[in-house]
Amino acid sequence: IHMDWLVFRPSERYIDVIRQLEGSDSWQEGRDTLFEIWRGGIADEGVEAALAVMSGHGAEMWRRSGREIGASFRAGGSPLEAYAAMAERPRVMHLYGQPREEAYLQRQQEFAAANDWFGVRRLAACSHFTMIETASEAAEAVGRFLAEQAPAASA
Predict the structure, then answer these.
(1) Which residues contact 126 (CB under 8 A, 6 or more apart)?
(2) Less CB within 10 Å around the terminal CB: N or C of the chain?
């Protein structure tokens, strides 16, 4: 299960935010920008609680996350490119809520049609936190995916 993270190469704007995280004078601005994006314009108590916990982490963690996320995109291009480069590709289901743009979903559906190891399901969430905002729907989607992976019972 690949949940709530970008699967394609990020936009230059997103890379700029990741670069902000790396800076000793800009990590807080980068973090706050991510928080606004991740909220998705909603007011959700659970999402706010998660962001409050994340806010408790300081410069060391946020700067390291910026370095590691940036290095991962530079090394692997995108998660889908990294998966596709594996000799044995795992079965991957991307569950996500944002971005809500139809073009993002369509691009993934086209990729899935050409790659039988990949599937996608957009959930009803508006935020980055589908597992909080739409917990039942996310759990059902995970359960369905796992059931599809189970070997058929022999008779």
Answers:
(1) 40, 41, 42, 97, 98, 100, 133
(2) C
Report the alpha-carbon distance of residue 20 to residue 62 in Å, rounded.
Answer: 10
pLDDT tens, 32-79? 999 999 999 999 999 999 999 999 999 999 999 999 999 998 887 899
With tokens 């993002």, the residue in question is 104
Nearest to 9, CA basis, from 92, 111, 131 = 111
Q: Is 7 helix (H, G, I), strand (E, B) or coil?
A: coil
Could you tell me which residues come within 8 angstroms of residue 152 by beta carbon, excluding any fewer than 6 positions away?
none
Is 0.90 surpassed by the pTM of this model?
Answer: no
The C-alpha atoms of residue 44 and residue 90 are separated, in whole angstroms, by: 34
d(CA 50, CA 36): 13
**pLDDT band with cut points at 50, 70 and 90 for residue 153:** low
Supply the angle between the helices 27-39 and 59-76 in degrees, to the nearest 10: 70
pLDDT band at 103 (very low <50, low <70, confident <90, very high): very high
Alpha helices in 24-150 (DSSP H): 27-39, 45-55, 59-76, 79-84, 102-114, 130-133, 135-149
